[in-house]
Specification:
cell membrane, membrane
Length: about 325
């Protein structure tokens, strides 16, 4: 039995499963199906197989997928700890399991004891962290795994390293703001795009202030990723893991901003749900790419360290 092949298969199954959970969670929120099973958990309206309604079907399907993916992730975790020699793989699978259980617990509490929008927004954030960890785990068993463990020979400054990790943390804040917009049902606070209600700076009240804050935060994320790529291209060679991750992060954030505009323009139309799911898909890919970029910087050599080591010693 080729254990490496099974590790790869289960890791990819966990990643795909977590990605599906993200999309289904967004579908539950957008269709307002969170109460589709009443206040029962894990049963749905007191039944193992609930009566057919669109809301109960969406909510119960989401719960079912979470349960199946959790089992797959548990099997993956056992395989990794028993057979993998990669310490980072054990960290990734442990992180994925922790945040998967945390988001499942938060989801159950949201059903039994309705939570505030601020707490509900964390549910998507925890699911996104679970996906990021499973993505990193899956990448360990691909051609990118070597760069994640030993680097690809790229030398970057300490300042770039710190900037990358700072951007990753900031992107999580942007994600949280987006989830907060959904859970407060504030999407209609800004009509039109790129202007908000026909104004460059609208009146900052109610839903408008929530949506406009998210727009500003997303625009700033796009700006800093543009600046990061311009710096990275001077320190990393084209084709290196660091260069490619920075490039794709920039591409994805541009697509993410445009998809945000698509969501706004689709309000009131049949295509709105599709636009919302596309928005979720892109932010998941962007956060995953930024996570890979951040891990990659840990395996690079700082230019300052190399220069210090290479400098002639004074007698």
């Amino acid at each position: 039995m080729n254990i490496h092949r099974w590790l790869k298969r289960f890791s990819f199954a966990s990643m795909i499963g977590m990605f599906l959970i993200l999309l289904m969670g967004a579908l539950v929120t957008k269709t307002e199906s969170g109460r589709g099973c009443g206040e029962d958990w894990p049963l749905c309206n007191g039944k193992f197989i609930p009566a057919y309604t669109i809301e109960s079907l969406i909510e119960y399907s989401h719960r079912f997928v979470v349960g199946v993916v959790s089992m797959i992730l548990l099997a993956t975790m056992i395989l990794v700890f028993l057979f993998s020699k990669r310490k980072d793989a054990k960290w990734y699978v442990s992180g994925a399991m922790f945040f998967t259980l945390l988001q499942a617990l938060l989801g159950a509490l949201a059903v039994v004891m309705p939570q505030s929008s601020a707490i509900l927004a964390l549910h998507f954030g925890f699911s996104l962290l679970s996906f990021a960890f499973t993505l990193l785990l899956a990448l360990v068993y691909t051609r990118f795994g070597e760069a994640m463990q030993h680097g690809d020979g790229t030398n970057i400054s300490k300042g770039v390293r710190m900037a990358v990790w700072g951007i990753l943390l900031y992107s999580y804040v942007v994600v949280y703001l987006g989830a907060f917009v959904r859970h407060t049902q504030s999407t209609g606070g800004c009509i039109g795009w790129p202007l908000c209600n026909g104004e460059v700076i609208p009146e900052m009240t109610g839903a408008t202030s929530i949506v406009f804050t998210h727009r500003l935060a997303a625009a700033l994320l796009g700006l800093v990723l543009l600046m990061l790529f311009m710096v990275v291209r001077t320190q990393a060679r084209p084709g290196s893991s660091l260069y490619e991750a920075a490039k794709w992060s920039l591409i994805l954030v541009v697509l993410q901003i445009l998809s945000g505009g698509f969501v706004t323009l689709a309000l009131g139309h049949d295509i709105y749900l599709l636009a919302s799911l596309l928005h979720t898909l892109l932010i998941s890919c962007l956060f995953g790419m930024l996570s890979f970029l951040s891990i990659t910087t840990l395996r690079t050599s700082a230019q300052e360290d190399i220069q210090a080591y290479a400098a002639p010693r004074l007698p």
